[in-house]
Amino acid sequence: MNTHVEVRYAFSPAEAKAWDTEKARQAMHIPQLFAANKIYLVYSHFDRFIAGGIMPVEESLQLEPVDALKAEYFLERRELGIINIGGPGTIQVDGEIFHVDFKEAMYIGKGKEELIFSSKDPKMPAKFYVNSTPAHTSHPTRHITKKDAEIVTLGSQESANLRTINKLLVASVIQTCQLQMGMTELHPGNIWNTMPAHTHDRRMEVYCYFEVPQGQAVAHFWGQPQQTRHIWMQNEQAVISPPWSIHSGAGTSNYTFIWGMAGENLDYGDMDMAAITDLR
């Protein structure tokens, strides 16, 4: 079987206070996204968010409906965002072929039935990182490169958080139902992301860390601002962040991460900021 699906249930801050490291990792950490000729998906009950990886090598892979969706096809009631973090690949959407290179994105709207993923070169396979959320209507399929993105630079070298944020699937670039995705690249010598930290009660989030050098790692911080914890992340792993939790990280080297969000609004101004000196 090419597709592996895991279901993760939602949890409250009160539950999380009692967890040890292993329990927290079981609830939030996604240790594997990619394996040759496999599709790995995690279905979270936080906003019904799906995160996963598709890695075609010698063969093409079709994204088919899974039991958790109770649907005739994967996007019957969903939308899909994709960012390729591997070699060049193609995505066939109801017969139309899109060429998607490294760090390029795709948006596929509700109602598209046939989704086929392929690599151009088995020696440099594509790694399609995917996020999917429920959708109420259909929006056009789009291929999005960095030229299309809204790009901003934040932070400073002095505070070790100089970073470039590539907003790929956001309201200023493309119309979606609720899914938002982007990619943040830490500059060399910088390690901190999303600091000062914040929460947003009307949106959950999933982070996928990649370009983490061999032998290095990222500490992902989570929890309520006065009850923070951490999960150590390796290269090409993801972590689920509940709406009530901060989501921030510091690496032993610079790295890149993809953020994906779902919720009832698309306004970034709804964040509840937490001052660095108030974190506990």
UniProtKB/TrEMBL annotation:
Reactions catalysed according to its record: 5-dehydro-4-deoxy-D-glucuronate = 3-deoxy-D-glycero-2,5-hexodiulosonate
Broadest EC class assigned to this enzyme: isomerase
Pfam families: KduI
Keywords, alphabetical: Isomerase, Metal-binding, Zinc
Coiled-coil regions, chain positions: none
EC number: 5.3.1.17
Example of a GO MF term: 4-deoxy-L-threo-5-hexosulose-uronate ketol-isomerase activity
Pathway in which this enzyme or protein is active: Glycan metabolism; pectin degradation; 2-dehydro-3-deoxy-D-gluconate from pectin: step 4/5
Cofactors: Zn(2+)
Binding site for Zn(2+): 198, 200, 205, 247
Keyword field contains Metal-binding: yes
Cofactor note: Binds 1 zinc ion per subunit.
Role according to the record: Catalyzes the isomerization of 5-dehydro-4-deoxy-D-glucuronate to 3-deoxy-D-glycero-2,5-hexodiulosonate.
Protein name: 4-deoxy-L-threo-5-hexosulose-uronate ketol-isomerase
